[in-house]
Fold Serine/threonine protein kinase.
Amino acid sequence: MDRSLRPGDPSFVGGHRILTRLGAGGMGVVYLGRTDSGALSAVKVIRAEYALDGDFRARFRREADAARRVDCPWVVRVTGADPDAARPWLATVFEPGPSLAEAVGRHGPLPARAVRVLGKTLARALAAVHAAGLVHRDVKPGNILLAADGPRLIDFGIARSLDATALTSAGMVVGTPGFLSPEQATGDGDRIGPAGDVFSLGCVLAYAATGRPPFGGGTVDALLYRTVHDEPDLDGLDEELAGVLRRCLAKDPDDRPAPAELDTALVEDVPSGTAGWLPAAVVRMVADRSAEMLSLPEIGATILEGPVRDRGPSRRRFLATVSGGAAVLAVGGGAAARAGLGGGTGKHASAGPGWAIGVQADLSGPGKAVGRAQEQGAQIAVEEFNALFGRPFTLHVKTSDDEGRSDRAAAAAERLADDADVLAVIGSSTDATTQAALPVYDAALLPVLGMSAGQNLVRNVRSFVRGRPLHNTVAMSLGFQLEATSAATSVGVLLDRSGGDASWMTIQMVNLVVRQYGDATHPRVVPAGTTDLTPVLTEMRSAGIEAFVYAGPVDGAIRAARGLADFTGPKYAAEPALDARFAAEPAAAGWTVVASAIGPGAAGVRSFAQAFRERHGRAPGFWAAEGYDAAKLLIRQLVATGGKRPARKALIGPLQKATYRGITRDFAFDQRTGQPTLTTPASFVHQVLDGGFHYLGPAPDKAPQPRTA
């Protein structure tokens, strides 16, 4: 998020001079404040609408008083609060260290000893919080800071309890999916208590030790289901630590240890007042964050005495004109020159070397066709920009290959994050690699625009914008397309577990749409790794299905096509089948694939496709046009800075608020949900014909009219 102060932000709160924003949420805004003595505080100011609620103020007062009683070196200390202020506020000691999420995302899992130290200190933190009559409810890696003298639990009691009492009702989930307890996942308010914090701490320690949440990733629904029903993934842990965490992660709250028991069970000496228990790379992060405090603005730096006057040269007025009409740049170099942007000399005054857009993608692994297409599309956009007369800077594309592997994604992201030239990133090209890379980019406050990752990956991530719809939105369009074009009243739907959560979401949504029309589905599931689909396909056909939907990886789609070669009903496949290997399969002829990627034959893409052919000697692949749109959108944001090299974090807020008419779709990012979404068209329909894909047009984004008898 953009951390700079805004016109409506206060200058002072309860004796704290406000320096900058630290974050914002549904309940209020957290600021970095400095007292007259120079002490730094995190100051949470409640939104005005809650301040008008007398019951809210009473709860705030009770819980602020309880929070003051928490006495533990591993919990951030409350330094002040005023429940009776016009806008109630609460201040805690400010800790500059990185979060556990940032440290693990950037440098990987912690050693076993460090995990045990972390567990013991946080168990003591929870014991103190519970002794004060509070329940944290949101113990997660992002709420654990790694300070020079040990970890700190933050955002305890007040934020979660206030949110729970003010905003929730029976059955509503409170907490962060992936790190909340089964009783939180089911909304069982009668059982939510201190034991839930212990479950969450078990999730945190498993994440710290393995680099992955114990119940996986993916959509909220899938995470909640696995939290309630599945066993945690503790592979790779030593048996002693795994045994302790299994007790913490028991489904029944009564079976979990109390924090004091957990402290005893984790046998390890806790270092006093040092960060030596952490890996050296993380210790450097802690030191770097502490050093950043030396460059904080002075007390007077946040005072605005009056309007800022532009004393720059006339060139700045030219740049303002360009940024104000930046959509002109999006149509390409020739159109821009005809519009009068050229200076006539072919020269430009660069604002300095090193303006670059990064592309993180699978460039050499199994999904390299998608990754390379996005990189090539972005490169064409940058070349068009660099061909403009009078451009304010020269732009470059820098790539980082993660090979489509989630275990290499963080390192690939780190290469771009550590390159000072890179101001924004497109990527990564898969769900898993994007999820693994985001903590690195978020820690660097480096804006990221994702074009092909369709899982719900945004959870307390400040720097990510998704330029495509979620998988379940595409799946809904698949269901609408089926109902709009087929008279089938019995639809076979096959979920291949090899496709992970995206396939699960597809089948769930298709089931929902088809059944809403009064038609029947015949759902079947095959385990991950299944190579022989003949038995299940034979059974589905014997049940009298009239249409078929497959959701799984491209290899499985090829097997399904071969197994249904003589099936004459309509056949549909989810987005992973949008692959040249599937189209080349003779048995796939006639299959329909609904995906977020547009076809190169679409009318709005033709000019780009021609430029691509001139550059590469062939037609663009799927996702190239999306890469082009992503780069154009980022270029527009860079131009809007007026030719002055921007800080990375200064681009995040404008990018999240941007609207943009691209060649693939109209982009608009909805800030109400905190998870940027997208305007229409969201999905596109492709049909296999003559060994390739034939573009049919946008998929329906609304339910078609019910069929009449």
